């Protein structure tokens, strides 16, 4: 889409903060009013619009995209999204360890055991840790508690939590980043223990590395989205 506006600004309205293009408020793809809970998020979205040059490229506007998703998709289907995000707890990355080699297993334990302990202490959710790729049935009470933790997030925060869990393969890592138990960079590193091990032994595959870099950008954008929500 060709850039059609000169100015992009964050503006306060009775309903909250919005973004205006040439003093006209923008709307979401579903034609809903684009409103954020606070100024910081709207300002970041306005900066994305202002940074566009001759063409408007939505792929380069993660904050705007996440706000749109929160309003158009997450808010109307909050319970369904909670179910999707909570399901990551049943197959969480940090619950599965390699049978061999021993050095990889040790690296996984060093990275993930503290998170397993944290999620039990923070949310009362005990995770069964297993080896291999066979599915391990997690305790129902722990999964119920994880679902409650997910459900406590409003539409905006749930949108970011979804991205964090989907990109990392771990609800535990997502919750830890959302709670500021982990910085985004560290959360991403902990989600890539297996891949880093493989790269050390087999080398870097250019296509896989490019895909991982994109996922990392999206992961960090989701964490930034949460940070912006907490600034107001």
UniProtKB/TrEMBL annotation:
Pfam families found in the cross-reference section: ATP12
Gene Ontology biological process terms, A to Z: proton-transporting ATP synthase complex assembly
Keywords for the protein's UniProt record, in alphabetical order: Chaperone, Transit peptide
Superkingdom per UniProt: Bacteria
InterPro entries reported in the protein's UniProt record: ATP12_ATP_synth-F1-assembly (IPR011419), ATP12_ATP_synth-F1-assembly_N (IPR042272), ATP12_ortho_dom_sf (IPR023335)
Entry's family note: Belongs to the ATP12 family.
PANTHER family tied to this protein: ATP SYNTHASE MITOCHONDRIAL F1 COMPLEX ASSEMBLY FACTOR 2 (PTHR21013:SF10), ATP SYNTHASE MITOCHONDRIAL F1 COMPLEX ASSEMBLY FACTOR 2/ATP12 PROTEIN, MITOCHONDRIAL PRECURSOR (PTHR21013)
Name of the molecule in the record: ATPase
Organism of provenance: Pikeienuella piscinae
